[in-house]
Amino acid sequence: SELLRLLEEAGDDALQPGHSGKPNSSSDLPLESGKMKRKRAQTPLEKYDLNYLCVTDLSTQSWCEQQMVYGRELPQQQAPETVVLLNTGKSIHLARELEVHDVVKVHTTSKEDSWAIKILNLLSVIPVLQAGGCVRELPVFGIIEDVFLMGIIDELCYSAKGELELRELKTRGRPFMPSGAQKKKDYFQVCLYKYIFDAMVQGQLKPDVITSHIHLRPEQPLGSHIREHAQKVGFTVTCFGDLLELMYLNMTLSDIPSIDCLKIEYSHQESNTLLGTEVVQFEEEKVRERAQYYLAYWKGRREVQGVEIEEAWKCQSCSYSEICDWRRKRAEGPEQRSGPKKSK
Ligand code: SF4
């Protein structure tokens, strides 16, 4: 296949996903007025120095928010079997991706270059979608509650009925379908993809929204490797703003429809057999409400929460059950529950 997906080979300005790249953002926090100037408490977005979140941050939060926080702070404490499961899942996704396009590494030298790669990956598949083809690993961006979100859709295809269908592949270590709680997390993930993809094709994500949220400079010249690859897929660009404009115009003028149908395929990792397919109902109001609730944590409007007693079974297989503050407080009784300490 001629289709390529660019993979970042980061130069010196390499950043962790979502990381704002500010040298020391905590020192930039506004101070409260008054004689005794005090710094206000940092929100989790500020604490982890993030200027965007991934869709999977929110979906893992819907399983257990406290676990998501521990996963960010103490990734090395993840149980080895969980790590193996995740890595096998990644390899399967990559193998599927290589069925439809090649992956090439591109050297980046700035934050704008890193984002240019995501945008080029999106731009290069728009003609495929327009022609009724199937695309995999499609990057999507959007805003909910004034927080920038980014995600990667596994697959978008047209069904026999001509509807645009999102397919999310979930691979499982065990040869049976997941529990209701696991499905709920996955449903939320695909609904968020639809929410932000639809907003993009409807022209709601303006270029200046992206640059202001991620603190990117539209006038930043793109690195030579990026310009070269842009040329290969038919775009002559010099600065980052050129690519943003192209993305906006291509997404809104290309007649790509909103996503009509959301499907999740569960397959067994070892035998590679399909365990089942779920069709997910999209209810916009409910998706927005749940996202607002999860984002309230990130914006520092409420404390982190662990699972409620009815879902305490999740703690049995949790890598952080030995150190979990929330679990300890829950065991100590209801009077301790009013304000579980933030995880450290
Ligand atoms: Fe969440 Fe339970 Fe794990 Fe604590 S032990 S992080 S409450 S799943």
Task: Provide the fold topology.
Layout (H helix, E strand, L loop, with lengths): L3 E7 L33 H4 L5 E2 H9 L1 H9 L6 H21 L1 E7 L2 H20 L4 E10 L2 E12 L5 E9 L7 H22 L5 H8 L9 H9 L7 H14 L7 E8 L5 E7 L3 H15 L14 H4 L8 H8 L12
Parallel strand pairs: 1-3, 2-5, 6-7
Antiparallel strand pairs: 4-5, 5-6, 7-8
Helix pairs in contact: 2-3, 2-6, 5-9
The structure holds iron/sulfur cluster.
CATH class annotation: Alpha Beta
Please state the structural category.
alpha/beta
Radius of gyration of CA atoms, rounded to a whole number? 21 Å
| Unreliable sequence segments | 23-34, 339-344
Major sheet, described briefly?
Answer: 6 strands, mixed
Care to describe what's here?
With 344 residues, the chain is an alpha/beta fold. The chain has one domain (4-13, 54-303): Lambda Exonuclease, Chain A, CATH 3.90.320. The chain is 42% helix and 18% strand. The chain is built from 12 helices and 8 strands. The chain has helices at 44-47, 55-63, 65-73, 80-100, 111-130, 180-201, 207-214, 224-232, 240-253, 284-298, 313-316, 325-332; strands spanning 4-10, 53-54, 102-108, 135-144, 147-158, 164-172, 261-268, 274-280. The strands form 2 sheets. Strands 2, 4, 5, 6, 7 and 8 form a 6-stranded mixed β-sheet that branches. A two-stranded parallel sheet has the order 1-3. A hairpin with a 2-residue loop joins strand 4 and strand 5. The protein is globular, with a radius of gyration of 21 Å. The model is unreliable at 23-34 and 339-344 (pLDDT under 50). Residues 64, 66-67, 70, 306-307, 314-315, 318, 320-321, 324, 326-327 line the site of iron/sulfur cluster.
